[in-house]
Design brief:
Shape: rod-shaped
Organism: Segetibacter aerophilus
Number of strands: 7
CATH class of the domain at 189-353: Alpha Beta
InterPro entries: HATPase_C_sf, HATPase_dom, His_kinase_dom, HisK_dim/P_dom, HisK_dim/P_sf, Sig_transdc_His_kin-like_C
Catalytic activity: ATP + protein L-histidine = ADP + protein N-phospho-L-histidine
EC number: 2.7.13.3
Radius of gyration: 48 Å
CATH topology of the domain at 189-353: Heat Shock Protein 90
Keywords: Coiled coil, Membrane, Phosphoprotein, Transmembrane, Transmembrane helix
Length: about 350
Amino acid sequence: MYLLAIDLEYRVIIGISAMVILFTSFIISFVISHRKKLQYHKDLHILHQEQQRMLTEQNELLEKGVQQRTAELSKQKEELEKTISHLKLTQAQLIQVEKMASLGQLTAGIAHEIQNPLNFVNNFSEVSTELVEEMEEALKKDSKEEAVTIATDLKENLRKIAHHGKRADVIVKGMLQHTQISTGKKELVRINELANEYLRITYNGFSLKDKSFYAVIETDFDERIGKVEVVPQDIGRVLLNLFNNAFYAVIEKKRQLNGSFEPIVAVKTKMGKSGSTDKAETISIIVRDNGCGISSKLVHKIFQPFFTTKPTGQGTGLGLSISYDIVKAHGGELIVETEEGKYSSFEILLPLK
């Protein structure tokens, strides 16, 4: 009995000890867990602060980079605007050079055109002066019959002077009409006359610059073509460019062949049909020369601004580019056919409406 009581007491003590140990373990585990949680939150807070610091630094660096890049782009923009402005100015100057070159060609041609009637006026004026002197002598001799004859000749001379004076006036007015600043307004113009007029003026301009210049001119104007609605100054400028190029090409070929070559420039106009209708809907002005032709490697570039096959100082490279734009503005096409060393042909294709 006594042993049983001791055993029971011992078991109770062991149980209580176990509970104490278990509770103590729990407390220790709780404390450790709590400390770990506190340390975790502390570490998390430190990490968050570090992330915030790094993010702030990155933002500052990014902002500085953006500001620096913005400044660089602003500078580049200013430089680009200056470059564009300079290019526009240069282009305007080159276009003006092209216009002045065309004007110079026209002026030379007009001077030659006017020279013929002026020569007639001067010659008949001199002859008329002599006739007046002869008439005075006849009247002094009281030779009325001779005076009447001289007066008849004098009257005829004055009629011829008036005729050639009016001819010069017509030439000047016609050229002023074609060379004045284009208003962009379309007018009804006789295409055949316009083409023939500019062809003659261009040829005369080359003749004045080079007394040895010679080229065969062949024309085939379709008489069915009447008046066509175009901007005469602009189409005249296209024709002048094409004629200039044609005469230049045959001159160069003749020079290359040491003169053993007959230069030919042909100008043709014709009416064309479009689609299945029999009604004419287009007109063509074709300028063909038997000059040097254009290389197949270069022909696709000829309508590009500033492209030229002429030596430096002899071309701005704007003539065909401007001509192309003018024809396009009329709703037409500027078509080229060429074979190097043989010929070049440019066709201005314009709609009738």
